[in-house]
Each structure stands twice: as structure tokens, then as C-alpha cells.
Amino acid sequence: MLLNYIKIAWKVLLRHPFYTFITLFGISVTLTVLMVITSFMDHLLGSHYPENKRYRSLYVTMLTQTDSSRNSRSQGPPSFRFINTYVKTLQTPERVGISSQFSFANAYVNGKRIKLNTKYTDADFWRVTDFEFLEGKPFSEPQIKGGDRVAVITDKLRKEYFEDDGKSTVGRDIEIEGLRYRVMGVVKGSPVTRLYTYADVYFPYTAPKSNYEKGQMRGNFVGIILAKTPADRQAIQSEFDQVIGRLPASGEESSFHYSQFVVKADTYINQFLTPFFGTDDSKKVFFYSIVGVIVLMFMSLPAINLVNVNVSRILERASEIGVRKAFGAPARTLLWQFIIENIFITFLGGVLALIFSYGIIQLINQSGWIAYADLTINVTVFLVSMGVCLVFGLLSGVLPAFRMSKLNIVDALKS
């Protein structure tokens, strides 16, 4: 029966090319926009290079201190000392890596300035991430402890600084801000949207200007906690909360007197929203709800327009409906027929949208608008897109189908 409904839908599409064009155009444009947005959100929040383990990671990125009146607060990343003392010592995680927020520096080649984003890390940073080393290897803990001036650079910086002279880059010196560093390795760069891994050059945290010895609670570092399994993240959060709960709640930092401080080990998406909504989970739930309503409205508006097209298309088949009802076809059968037909048509539009989305995504990746952009239509994006197609097909098909299934037999046969 399902196959017969699809065959009928295909014949109807071939019968009126103009209606078919209008329907497929409306569907494909809407779904293309949604697929590109979904791909970008997956690129921004999903587990991708070099943060392939993000799905089983927690992040310590923000520490908020509040005064006794709850009217003033001081907020920023934690210090290296804080992470090293209270996060690195956790027993539940597989490993904890530390990296700084990226900062800026300059290098010069033949009088030309190269603007650099720099990052200071520990040795475990390279173990909680999945950087692809094109040459060499990361700096080791003994090198960090010894204060060796070593660095890991990206393939982009290798090309700009050493100008692809064909020689191995490992062991060569690179001068940055007047200081010479020995290149230990070359990695494939991280997209700029991955704030905790993106940089042009990576230094040990003991390198000059890292400020890792700062004794305050707040500084310029983040902790990346790698759990053994995704299920372990809740246990890590509980252990972390217990450790933080034993610390004095009040104190003074940078002339700011605080009576309460809040710091969490949280998932990437939650800590991504923390700067906007703080630690109030109810605000985050409200944000998710608003986003859901906006997406539903975005799908509903073109779906409402398509309702009129679908009604016109189905009205032309009134005589067919009348004959089927005269031979005893129940309203439920007719209802499902038109819903399935509309879903089939929507999925055809979805196929076109996938093709358009792929072209747009390739354009974005190759344009250089986002450094090392790797937007894709992966399994997650594909399944979300197909789910959207199903919802869209139902939104634009239920009302016309219900109206036609209730059509009076006599009126239908007169049409």
C-alpha cells in the first residue's frame, strides 16, 4: 500500500510541473537553510578535530566571584595554579589537560610581519586532544619542567615562516617576539571556532609571558577534563564539586572582596553558554526553548504557504477521492494517503536541499572565511535533516489531508 501511495504521488508531480516546481522550491530553500545552520552548529559544538573526545570531556573555563550584596561580581578564566591544584588532582578522570586562552604575538620574515595567535599548554593537553602531527611530536613534561624554549607550530605558520623550502621543520628555530624557540612538531591547524585548541603556535606553560605562576584564583587558563567514558562525567562533576565545596567561600582578589565563588566542570555546550547566562540553569533551559520555538516558526511559515499549494493540488483530485469514498474507503485511509504523499514530496525536496547544502558547505570551507573550517554533512547532520523533513512534511500536509478526507462524497463526485 505504501508503495502505491508513493507511485501516485510521483504521477501527481509529473502531471503539474508548475505546482511541482513551487512545492519543491519552497521545501528545498527552507531545508537548505536549516541544514547549513545545523552543519554550522555541529561544527561549533560537536566532537570534531582536534577535539574528537569532546563527547566525553568536561571543561573548567570560568570562575565567578560575587560580593556579599550580590550586586557586583568578578568573572574570568581560572589560573594555572587553581587548575593544577584542584582539577589536575581529581581521581576520577582519565587525564586533565591545561591550556591558556589564546593571546597574540608577532613574528617577522624578510621584514614581513606575521600576526600569531599563541597558546600555552602542559604535556597532557596533547593527550586530551587529537592533533594530527605532520612532523615531529609535542614537547614533553621534562622539557616543560626544564624551561626549554620549544614550540609546536601549525602547517599554516610553517608555510608562512619557512616558506615551504622542502626541508624538515623539526629542530629549526623560529623567532617570536624577539625570542628563539626550537620547533618540536608541526600540526594540522585547528578551526578558529574551537577556542580551547585554536592557535598558530603552542608553547610550554613555562615559556615567557605565560603568567602561569600567578597565585590568584583567576587567571588565563582552562582545564580540559577527559573522562574514561561519557557516563563518568557525572561522577567527575560530583568529585569536583566536593573539592570546591571544601574551599573558603570568601576572600579578596585584585582588591575585590567576594563572599561567594562559583566554578563548574561542565560539558562544552553548557560552558559555551555560561558567559551569556551565568550558572543559572533555568536561563539555559529558557534559551533552548526560545531556539526551539524560533526553528519551529521558521519551518511553519513556509509550511503554511505550502498548505495552500497542497490544498489546490489535492482539490483537483476531488473526483478520485469521491470514487474511493463511494467504494468504502475510510477517512483514515485517505488521510494517511495524502500525508504519506506529502512526506514523500518533502523528502524529494530534502534530497535537493542536501545537494544545495553540500555545495554551500564546500564553498564555506574553501572560502577561508573560517580558518581550517571543516563543516560537513555527517551522520548527525543527516539524521537531523531527515527529522526536519519529516516534521516539515507533517506541518504542511496534515491540514490539507484532513480537509480532503472529510470531503462529502456527492460534492467530490461533482468536481
From TrEMBL:
Ranges for domain MacB-like periplasmic core: 20-242
One of the record's GO cellular component terms: plasma membrane
TM spans (from-to): 21-41, 285-307, 334-361, 381-402
MF terms in GO: transmembrane transporter activity
Keyword Translocase annotated: no
The UniProt record lists the keyword Repeat: no
Primary residence: membrane
Keywords, comma-separated and alphabetical: Cell membrane, Membrane, Transmembrane, Transmembrane helix
ABC3 transporter permease C-terminal domain sequence ranges: 293-409
Compartmental location: Cell membrane
Membrane-protein topology: Multi-pass membrane protein
Name by which UniProt lists this protein: ABC transporter permease
Species name: Siphonobacter curvatus
Lineage: Bacteria, Pseudomonadati, Bacteroidota, Cytophagia, Cytophagales
